[in-house]
Amino acid sequence: MKKEKLWKSYKNTGDKKYKDELIVEYIDLVKIISGRLYTNYNSHVEYDDIVSYGIIGLIDAIEKFDLSKNVKFETYANIRIRGAVIDQMRSLDWIPRSTRHKFRVFEEAINKLQNQFGNNYNDEDIAKELNVDLKELYDIISEISTLSIASLDEKIEENSNFGVKSNNLDFSPEKKLLYNESVDNLHNVIEGLPERERTIVNLYYFSELTYKEIAEILKISESRISQLHTKIIAKLRKTIGN
Q1: Span 109-123, mean pLDDT?
Q2: Domains defined for the chain, CATH in brackets
Q3: pTM
Q4: The dihedral formed by the CA atoms of 198, 147, 223 and 31, expressed in degrees to the nearest 10
Q5: Rounded CA gap, 182 and 72, in Å?
Q6: Cα–Cα dist 121/111, whole Å
Q7: Which residues contact 77 (CB under 8 A, 6 or more apart)?
Q8: RNA polymerase sigma-70 domain: which residues (predicted)?
Q9: Which pLDDT does position 80 carry in this prediction?
Q10: Which of 13, 69, 117, 218 could form a cystine bridge with 169, CB 3.0-4.6 A?
Q11: CB 42 within 8 A of CB 73
């Protein structure tokens, strides 16, 4: 049965068998999103657990999706699936407080340097701002790298009108304006990044390559990609939150 017909059958009847068929139709979407998030959360959760959280988001999306709205289901479901996983991970409180504190301090240092020097600062400047040596700086970045990616997902979720707890498919005029401004600000920040950082953003978020694949392309170490990515996220989070 074609998806369009399946959707109409489910929305017209509410029959569970049609909903179950829709779940089967879109389960690959859950697996794709779960695989991506699994790499973000590293070894802190099992892949199968993420898939199960994602399925909750998919079911919620199927039940609440309005065929009359001019929104693709995949777009709507994507954010609800991610939102369901993020909500569950928040409830698990899987990041130690000490790591969260280190990330906040690191983010504040990046923002301060960004305000003072734009992109004209280096790792030595960050280390000096944090009052640590380079080895300590890289140890900190290694510890907070997983949290930084997850926190960017949370920040996007917080600033999205398609949150998992929301029944709305439409933007209000005010929210649409704020959303467009956030997108424009984020685009400007990405465009203003140094070329190598901008390349990492494009390869990781748009081409969806792994750190290892990006490292091979840029001919630098995988750990260096992780370090650069963590700094990029600190910059992007500030923009999304504005």
Answers
A1: 89
A2: 3-92 (1.10.1740.10), 97-241 (1.20.140)
A3: 0.60
A4: -80
A5: 21
A6: 11
A7: 26, 29, 57, 58, 61, 62, 65
A8: 49-62, 210-236
A9: 87
A10: 69
A11: no
